[in-house]
Design brief:
Layout (H helix, E strand, L loop, with lengths): L1 E6 L2 E6 L4 E5 L5 H7 L5 E4 L2 E4 L4 E3 L5 E2 L2 E2 L4 H10 L16 E4 L1 H16 L4 H4 L4 H14 L7 H4 L1 E4 L4 E5 L2 E7 L2 E6 L2 E6 L23 E7 L12 E6 L2 E5 L5 H7 L9 E3 L5 H4 L2 H4 L6 E5 L1 H15 L3 H7 E5 L6 E3 L2 E7 L7 E8 L5 E7 L5 H6 L12 H12 L4 E5 L20 E4 L4 H7 L10 E5 L5 H13 L5 H8 L3 E4 L4 E3 L7 E7 L2 E3 L9 E2 L4 E2 L1 H6 L7 E3 L3 E7 H10 L3 H15 L10 H10 L11
Parallel strand pairs: 3-6, 6-9, 9-10, 17-18, 18-19, 19-20, 24-25, 25-26
Antiparallel strand pairs: 1-2, 2-3, 4-5, 7-8, 11-12, 12-13, 13-14, 15-16, 15-27, 16-17, 21-22, 22-23, 23-24, 28-35, 29-34, 30-33, 30-35, 31-32, 31-34
Helix pairs in contact: 3-10, 15-16, 15-20, 19-20
Length: 638
Amino acid sequence: MTLTEVNRGISLVEIPEAGLSVLCGCPENAIKFLFKRGVIQKREAQGVRYESGPNAILLSEIPVQHGRFTNLAEFPVLQMLYRQGMIVPGHPGNTGRRPLIIGLEHQLEAQAAYIYYGNYGISDPDELCPEDERRGQALVRMKRWFSFGNFKDSAELLELKPISDSIIELRNGAFLRRLGVNRYEFIYEGQSQTVDLSHADEGPHCPYTLPSIEITREGFSVVHLGEGDGWDPSRPCMSSLITHNGAVYLIDAGPNIEESLAAVGLSVGCLKGIFHTHVHDDHFVGLTALMRSERRMRYYAVPAVRRSAQRKLEALSGVEADGFAQLFELHDLEPGVWNDIDGMALRPDYSPHPLETTIFRFEAQDGSGKRYSYAHGADLSSFKVIDAMTTEDDDAPGISPREAAAAKALYLEAADLKKVDVGGGQIHGDAMDFAGDQSGELVLSHGIAKAQAKALGFGRIASFGEQRVFFGLQSDWHRRIAESSLDLYFPQVPKSELEALLASPLRALARGELLCEKGHEIQAVFLSLSGRLERGEQGPERQLSLRAGALLNALECSRGLPTATSFRATQRTVVLAIPAASFLSLVHRNGLAADFERLDEAYGVLSSCPVFSGLEFLPGFIALARAAAELRLEPGAG
């Protein structure tokens, strides 16, 4: 018996004699950490290439730790079912043994539903598309082809082992003893290993390191935020940012989306919305980060994908459909037609895939009337697969010849910039299908290796954070952010007075540059507009990290005190430097000093509460503090 510590919250217990390899804990990107540590190896048998890996998962009893889900078993299970071959007909890995999932009974039930939706999406056509019966039936018919003709209940795909006693047998004389909350002992023939699935918030969340890059907000641009897939340990999953009229939108949210945003100088609070293609975990898991935004984020998807997301999130977290609408501002997209997104046009089209999936085409027009287009094709099917699933039989699993021709035409529709999934295999695109693509620029994505892309002679792989600008803004986006932030800070101040502050100079800080120093006389109040600031001096307190929208020195300036804290830029950062005299004049004219004191008291209470520890968008936090009211209760009061 061996124990391998893979990463925090992830370990592997192997008992070869009992035929067990147990993944203990599966937070986001667990499968990538297994690849990175060499736990998963390439194998070949009977002329078939496949992978080794764990065949069992021990779930955490605490499904959320430090604001992140810890039981994201979808990709580990998919690796067992398909890449190890446990479910593939005729595969040497298909021995009749199913992935073993171990956990408390209610967590097993949740994981079974979550994995079912991750594997198939919604399989009832009436639930999937109640507004369009024919479309719902066509989608389910298509998905049946990918599922080998039938949707299997999770109990058929998985062996669910509830922890119903203090000690249980797993397989072949291997036992598991529960020692306490999230503490377990594996026992086999006199040997034992202990694991603890609770962990401190230390160590890397990411299996990869990202560069620090500054992006700009434009009239219309695309930022490449990831070109890997759910298995690639060196790159983030396929994703993009769209900027339009200075607003920033995300396309899909995979694992570690917070780290990807931070690398380009953004936080979740900087996003206006998300466009969602489908609910496989490498495009879905990051929704949990977006849920923690200081406001409801706009969620754009066709109704079938939105319902799938609601179902999957409900299984994972207990958030029901009504709760989903409270967490996100829902905007259903109509498939196959142009939808208006604040002046930007978006057309979502269904794409053949194991679950309901759309590809996106965006178009925007500059001041001269010229139109530009970006096509985002996540999780495509190769033409070979499309041909294999094409049938004239309306009752058979698959798609009609008309649907097949339409899908191919949509894939090849030219755009100024096109990004396509060419990950290969049964459920991803094939690069050779795009050999004659007439797009102005073709980006190959979703796990294709650099050497493989280079050998093709067409297309390329984008670098992380690379930005393609179609046309710029008519005004400075820094000023726009400053205006919206000051509105949130001072809703009672006349617009004309805030406009006077907006005329203050901008200051750009290089990485590592000091903005203000503790104890010095205040010369200016600073409003951060991009980048990231952290406390300059070291101390026992939690490191304070602030992103765009932070207002520094305001309270001290109002009180006539020196700077209370030193702040340093940890990446290129732009701030609005409001002269102290101008700010103090604003405070006096509008009687803000008392308001500052009340807000400071409320802010101090809220910021010490763990519930709000992840909030980095300071204007949103201040708005929360402004709305807070103190309630005092006498002992015994109800």
